[in-house]
Design a protein that fits this description.
Chain lengths: 274, 302
């Protein structure tokens, strides 16, 4: 019988945990299906609006120029409705990364293998950020190129070098990781599937729709939501509001949501029984 | 080696584990017994650092498990065979665990072969029977070739061939010098596997001793006597201080050894056609010891 030899252990590396989380994420068929469907719906909806516009458009050089000058091609490059759908979907997908583990009990296998909980959650947040940033970039780029190609058939399209165009693509792309991280943080804190998904939909989609520019507190609260921040960035000529704010402020809001969500995710499991 | 010292866990007003102290030694299979809700799973979770004790401490190999950055090379654990995402294949589940602990990918193939799941390695766990999930859980526990192994109710769902395989595996792991700690709520499962027993009820320690010592605890040892003069012998034995149950021509005697029963019968020329010493089974000893505790379900949280 072989005797037990003292445990020899290689140095613990975060990169191994990142690789493990990536294995878990990519091995689930549901991951590919869910991201795939979301991409098709978001890009498809954007394209459908562009098709609708161009099919009803009556060519007129003056109107064509005004359409472009008013920045409508950019608004159609990624519509608000598409953004809300993507936010809802990405919040859910981010949450699933952790509530999938709580729902199935896998979290105990995970934490028994890696007692360093903050490292586990850091790896999860890292993998989710990379995957959803790639996803967001693909979806936002595809939406931009497809909608502008459709509009271009009526001479209404703009190129990526058009003023404000790159901003639309980048902000729309980044909306994906921001919402996914918010979903992940909510899942890590709440742990239960139904409650997490309700909270995620409430915070990301319902809340910004309820908040208006009507009063100061409501406007400030609205500006602090990812949806309004995105909207501020992508809208070429915002409606005049008694409470104006800068795109710089809007970028800061998006960054703050991502960072706070990541921080909450990383510390959320540390002191709680699993 | 697992060292449990004054371990206590309360959930609100419920005390799941109360000042538990015992040691699990290497080279042996130690059974962890108690009725459902006795606090076994809670204790195992505290050993693994998943739950934080209210007070007291537990170390594995001299250190609290949660202080380690990676666990699989130190402790292999099967807590619940269902603790796996059904959408994963057996290979993906183990590959992720192996990678997280920087274990070579070849270990995944090795442990799958060892537990007999090599043929279904690329099937999704959703389609696995409970027995197959138990084998997958055992494979995960073996991944890091650890010196300490914990199994919570590992025999659930296994067919008789599977039960025999698991028992042989436990004995083999212990013979290699590993610490093997196996929980069960059925004494019969431990009877042919464990060398040592830790018995708890209502979260408190009832016994921590060898299987042999434990079986000697049963108070219902007795002598079974068969005779045609049952009534007469009953009176004689009762006069000698025994407690006697009469059933037809058979007596069950407690309080006197078989030799004394035989002596009394011979002196009064009562012929016996049966005289057996019956020791209480381990199951009976276990039931007797834990009887007081089963009626108080301690909150065993999931």
């Amino acid at each position: 019988m072989s005797a037990i030899v003292p445990v020899v252990e290689p140095r613990a590396r975060l990169v191994d945990l990142v690789a493990a989380e990536w294995i878990k994420l990519r091995s689930l068929r549901s991951t590919w299906i869910a991201y795939g469907i979301t991409a098709v719906v978001v890009v498809g909806l954007n394209a459908a609006i562009a098709v609708d516009t161009s099919s009803h458009w009556k060519p007129d050089p003056v109107e064509d120029a005004r359409f472009v000058r008013d920045g409508i091609p950019l608004l159609e490059a990624f519509t608000s409705n598409s953004a809300l759908i993507m936010m809802l979907a990405l919040g859910t997908l981010g949450a699933l990364m952790i509530i999938g583990e709580y729902g199935t009990g896998t979290i105990r296998s995970t934490l028994a293998a890696v007692p360093a909980r903050r490292s586990v959650m850091t790896a999860k947040a890292a993998v989710l950020t990379v995957v959803t940033t790639v996803f967001g970039t693909l979806v936002a780029t595809a939406s931009f190129l497809l909608t502008q190609a459709i509009l271009h058939s009526r001479n209404l399209g703009v190129s990526i070098t058009h003023p404000g165009a790159a901003r639309v693509v980048v902000a729309s792309a980044l909306l994906a990781p921001v919402c996914a991280l918010v979903g992940l943080a909510l899942g890590a804190v709440i742990r239960r599937t139904a409650a997490t998904l309700t909270a995620s939909a409430g915070v990301l989609v319902l809340l910004p729709l309820l908040l208006t520019e009507g009063s100061r507190w409501s406007a400030v609260a609205a500006h602090a939501t990812p949806f309004h921040a995105w909207s501020r960035i992508v809208t070429p000529r915002p409606h005049p509001t008694p409470y104006p704010w800068t795109t710089g402020g809007a970028w800061t809001v998006l960054a703050a949501w991502a960072l706070v969500a990541a921080a909450v995710t990383i510390v959320s499991l540390h002191r709680r029984d699993q | 080696m697992i060292d449990v010292n004054e371990l206590t866990k309360r959930y609100g007003a419920t005390t799941a584990v109360n000042r538990l102290t015992f040691t699990v030694r290497p080279g042996q299979v130690t059974g962890f017994l108690g009725p459902n809700g006795a606090g076994k799973s809670t204790t195992l979770r505290m050993i693994l650092g998943l739950h934080t004790p209210t007070s007291g401490a537990v170390t594995v190999g001299g250190r609290p498990f949660r202080d380690r950055s990676r666990g699989l090379r130190h402790v292999g654990a099967l807590l619940d065979a269902q603790d796996v995402h059904g959408g994963h294949t057996a290979v993906a589940h183990l590959a992720a665990l192996a990678r997280s602990n920087r274990l070579p990918r070849a270990r995944v193939t090795e442990v799958l072969e060892e537990v007999g799941l090599a043929g279904v390695a690329r099937r999704r766990v959703d389609g696995f029977s409970l027995g197959m999930k138990q084998r997958l859980g055992i494979a995960a526990a073996l991944l890091g070739d650890p010196p300490v192994l914990l199994f919570d109710e590992p025999l659930n769902g296994l067919d008789p061939e599977g039960v025999k395989w698991v028992r042989d595996l436990f004995l083999r792991l212990a013979a290699q010098g590993r610490t093997v700690f196996v929980s069960s709520h059925l004494m019969s499962e431990m009877e042919h596997t464990a060398d040592q027993l830790v018995v708890i009820g209502r979260g408190e320690l009832i016994a921590a001793e060898s299987l042999a010592e434990f079986s000697a605890r049963g108070t219902r040892r007795g002598v079974v006597v068969g005779t045609s003069a049952a009534t007469a012998l009953r009176d004689l034995l009762a006069a000698d201080g025994a407690t006697v149950d009469l059933d037809g021509d058979q007596l069950t005697v407690t309080g006197l050894p078989a030799s004394r029963v035989s002596e009394i019968a011979q002196r009064h020329r009562i012929p016996l056609h049966r005289l057996d010493t019956r020791s209480a089974s381990l199951e009976e000893a276990f039931m007797e010891l834990t009887a007081a505790s089963v009626q108080y379900p301690a909150g065993e949280s999931r």
